[in-house]
Amino acid sequence: MIGKLTGRIDYRAADHLLIDVRGVGYIVYCSDRTMAALPGVGEAVSLYTDLVVREDLMQLYGFLSLVEKEWHRLLCSVQGVGAKVSLAILGALGPDGVSRAIALGDWGAVKAAKGVGPKTAQRIVLDLKDKAPGVMAMGGTVTEAMDGPVAEVVEPIDPAPAPVRAPKPGAGAASAGALSALSNLGYGPSEAASAVAEAAADLPDAGEAELIRAALKLLAPKG
């Protein structure tokens, strides 16, 4: 199984790129959102990957984070959802958006992705709702694929390319921290995940402490 690739981009297409890893080229398919975040041709790149093997096909799919890869794996486990549909959902919502939509039961947000009908969107939310807390919690424990040096496995060229910049941290770590805090306070995984997801949707730039306060207000008894 090929779980991660680090190399240099030889070319980019609309939905895939060719990564040269010490003279071996790997074609990797990515979501629109991931493609937009990748550097240009000739620059170094590192992606987590998932290899799909069928009788007539071997195809690699690439992800910037383990959270994105895990959502891809879970989305593809739902009946009627293949790799292309999964990438369309991740491209439209991003991993944090998928977490929020599924935790909140917002199948309308999932349906907004290209190629996803209402029945499929509802099935995704129903099948994966209990998985959302676990994936959201991953946000505080995993690193981005492009963190750290890559020079050791990338062949130098002249002139040397600019070093790869790690992506700015997203809301995943703050949401994961808030989810953990609410769990420690005795809230169940599903209700905690729903509250954190709703708070993160209302306050996209909030830190962990602010998310906790907002989620606690949502969980407070009404009346």
TrEMBL record:
Q: Where is the Helix-hairpin-helix DNA-binding motif class domain?
A: 73-92, 108-127
Q: Which UniProt key words apply to this protein?
A: ATP-binding, Cytoplasm, DNA damage, DNA recombination, DNA repair, DNA-binding, Helicase, Hydrolase, Nucleotide-binding
Instruction: Show the GO MF annotations.
Output: ATP binding; four-way junction DNA binding; four-way junction helicase activity; hydrolase activity
InterPro entries from the UniProt entry: DNA_helicase_Holl-junc_RuvA_I, Hlx-hairpin-Hlx_DNA-bd_motif, NA-bd_OB-fold, RuvA, RuvA_2-like, RuvA_C, RuvA_C_sf
Q: Where is this region: Domain III?
A: 174-223
Compartments reported by the entry: Cytoplasm
Which Gene3D superfamilies has this protein been placed in?
Answer: 5' to 3' exonuclease, C-terminal subdomain, DNA helicase RuvA subunit, C-terminal domain, Nucleic acid-binding proteins
* Region (Domain I) location: 1-64
A Pfam family the protein falls into: RuvA_C
Q: Which GO terms describe its cellular component?
A: cytoplasm; Holliday junction helicase complex; Holliday junction resolvase complex
> From which residue to which does the signal peptide run?
none
**Similarity comment text for this entry:** Belongs to the RuvA family.
Q: What is known of its domains?
A: Has three domains with a flexible linker between the domains II and III and assumes an 'L' shape. Domain III is highly mobile and contacts RuvB.
Name of this protein: Holliday junction branch migration complex subunit RuvA
